Structures are given as C-alpha cells and as structure tokens.
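B-box zinc finger
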Amino acid sequence: MAKWRNILAGSGGMLGLFVGNDRGIVKSSVVVKIHQMIVVKGFLHYNQYMKEKSAAANKRRPLVLKIKDGTTKPIYCDDHPEGRATFRCLKCGHLFCEACVGGEDGDKTYCINCKGFYEQDEKRRQAQEKKAVAAPSLKKAELTLAALGVGVSLALGYYVYENSKDPVINRGGLSVEETEMVQDANRLVSETDRLVREGIIESERLLATPVESLGDEYE
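Predicted structure tokens:
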C-alpha cells in the first residue's frame, strides 16, 4: 500500500499531498513548477504595473520653479491661478493644470487652446500609419494574386480530372458539367483578380498622396 507523504514546496510555500511513488513525485514536481511560474509571472506583472504607475505619477507632478539658492517656488496655472500647473504645452509653452488639458499623446501634452494642433497631429499620425501599412500590402497583394491564379488553375485541373467519368486526357473535349465547372472557376478567378487589383490601386493611391491631405480624409 502506497504511503502518503507531505511535501513542502520550497519556493512557493505550497503544501501538497501525493502518493509515495514515481508518478506521485512527477506530479508534485510539475505542480511546484507551475506554482513557481505563476509566482514569477505575477511578480513581473506587478513590477510593470508599479513602473507605469510611477511614470504616470511623475507626469502629473506639479511643476516648480527652482531658485538659485536651492529652494523651489510653486507654479500656478495661467488660466486658474488657484490651481497648481502640471503641464507645459508642447505647442505654445502654456502652463496649465489638469482641467485645461486639450489632448495627450504619450509624452506630448497640449493645452485646451492648442487642441486643434493636437487633432491635426493625431490625424497626421494616423495617416502616416496607414501609409506605412499600404506599402507592404501592395507587394503582398501582387504576390497573392499570382499565387492564387496558379493555385486555382492547378486545383481546377485536378478536380475536373478526378470527378470526370471520362478523364479529359482521354478525349478531346469537355462535357457540359465540366464546362460549367471551368466557367465557374474562371468567374471566381476574375472576381478575385478584380478585388485584389482594387486593393493594389488603393494602396498605390495612398503611397502617392501627401500625408497632409490624408489627414483630412481619415478622420
């Protein structure tokens, strides 16, 4: 009769019961490893969370003016003198508080008066991303079209050959059923070709269009 034993997992402090045989030892070691992975992963997530929280807190820290004698003087919002200034506008240098934030993009902060510039920069950034995606998509579409044509042709020939009672190689013509199959396949290839070429034309248009004009198009 197998004996039951208690094992204390060193790293995780996990107390487990298992049968005293090889299978039980293997199961216990697997449980310990899984527990270790959970502990390590949880620690990494917590560490990342604290870093992001600290960065956000530093970004929101009130601004101060450093005096030559080593002391500091608080800086107040230009529009709300009773509130401490937290940001300096990237566009105009305006000192403002949380209530006057017009837009944020990473470490870029705009006051409410420069909100229009923030929106323009955001549109320009989106247009640049779309343009960057369009370039590789164009080459990918061309390769896809070529591969699709070859693949459909091979698949069609094999399908007709396998499903025909009288294989094509043994006679000169096609039956009515085989002819309809070929016509359906040709229509499929034509439709796919049209869709892919439309995508290529759109990608070429995006690549040829200035980024400034794309900003108004993709709102």
